[in-house]
Amino acid sequence: MYWMPLLLTVAAAVTVTYAAVGATCSNNVQCGQGECCQILSEYMIMSKKRQLDWMTTTPPYPTRGTLGSCQRYQLEGSSCNPFDKINGYCSCEPGTRCVQHEYPITSTTEPTTEGPTSTTPHLAKRTFGRPGYVWFAKCEK
Question: How far is CA 52 from the centre of its chain?
Fold first, then answer.
């Protein structure tokens, strides 16, 4: 009977260490390697103006709650959204950041999410910007 509390403690430690994607969390320590604790903001930021408002808001911008879920980071080269991190989503993995690129539209057809050439890695398409151009964002160092 003395081994039962020890067994439960070890089982809890293993569960926290190897938390599965989607597990409930309150901070990044509770998530596994390559994951973060995704706690979404109460009010989603969708523009640079709102981003500036968020950066000057005190106390910190409100969240929906203190609990979130473990989700995987976006890997280097994968598509991203520049507003993901400030909205509480797991954005680019540590050491990378979400960078936007503007490409000219060179044909009369709608551009694909692969960008201007077939060798361009998969990127997230953005429809704002100046006429004749399209925006794509990806995680880069």
Answer: 19
pTM for the predicted model, two decimal places: 0.56
Helix, strand, coil share (%) of the chain residues, nearest 5: 20, 25, 55
End position of a domain, from candidates 23, 47, 72:
72
The residue behind tokens 């969390």 is 25
Domain boundaries, position 45:
1-72
Q: Which residues of the chain have pLDDT under 70?
A: 1-20, 43, 45-65, 107-129
Q: How many CB atoms lie within 10 A of CB 85?
A: 16
Q: What is the DSSP string of 19-60?
A: PPTT-EESSGGGS-TTEEEE--BSS---SHHHHHHHHH-SSP
Asked if 89 and 126 sit in the same domain, the reply is yes
Q: pLDDT tens for residues 32-51? A: 999 999 988 776 766 655 45
Are residues 1 and 68 both part of a single domain?
yes
Query: For residue 37, what are the β-bridge partners?
Result: 70
DSSP state of 51: H
| Same domain? 41 vs 79 | no
| Whether 34 contacts 78, CB under 8 Å | no
Query: 87 and 139: one domain?
Result: yes
